[in-house]
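Anyone have tokens for Cobalt-precorrin 5A hydrolase? Sequence:
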Amino acid sequence: MNTVKPESIALFCLTPGGVALAKRLAAMLPVTCFTSEKLLEEGFLPFENGFANCAREAFASYSALIFIGATGIAVRVLAPLVNDKFSDPAVVVIDERGQHVISLLSGHAGGANALTRYLAGMLGADPVITTATDVNEMAALDTLAFQLDARMNDLRAAVKIVNQMLVSGQRVGLWWDAELDEEVRRCDRRGFITVADLERLPELDALICVTLRSELPTIPLRHWKLVPQRVVAGIGCRRDTPFPLLAALLARQLAAQRYDPLALKAIGSVSLKKDEPGLVQLASCWRVPFETFTADALREHEHRFPVSPFVRKTVGTGSVSGPAAWLLSHGKLSGETLREQGVTITLGVAH
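Reply: yep, here.
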């Protein structure tokens, strides 16, 4: 799976051969091509303040970087910027003859391995991938997490342990909620042992549980919970509702429906609330997007929910939390709406 956004790929070339190859690639996928002033052609952008500076700026603003040239050049330019494989962009290097495509940085989380295979397939080149799980033709926990858009407490530590177990031949099980079956089956699960029933575990050294649940039954071996972000929350509130109250009520609503807090995917409300301090802080604290909808968009679905004349007079629609959750989840609502202290919260599940 290519986790890189195609529209955010920056490509750098330093030679006439590199420019020729860049033109081939640009005809096959959307990339922003950079080169020097003397090699500039239509469709290319010049290096601003030199190649190194341009590449370093792109490192902070693009999802992926492709260098056509020597691997050493890319390493020397980017070395001071490399931080974390969960946040660094994908970096791929291609020789100017298009014979080898090398996954250099952020192979799993950044999508460099997937991008490498994709580019190699387009060019008829050899993909060069050195991550241990890929070399051993196995899946990886971080790849699974990103394919499922899932979170885990201390994912970095778990990835290190679980991936090492996989390449060492240890038995790592994989269990998932029935409601996630279609999504998980589409993921790369090579090397994991499928577990159908938590009450009847095969012989395992560790277990990954893919679930939205806040609690699991007692599991008598080392295990980790991988939580896909699927739960959305439509929220309506009075002006200047304090953040602590919103946070407490949202946590309570999630707990009431037995959702793990890590499962929260987005918070939604009416456009009038786009700058509401408590809601903005709530989304920031939970590290999820805050999406707003026009009153007209919400009003199309207000007939499905209890309507308040006061709310309609104030914001232009008679219901906020229900319609917002409906739109965020494509109609897959979950449980009853919480109504307390001028706050309404409706949950949904967006698969």
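The CA atoms of residues 205 and 239 lie 52 Å apart.
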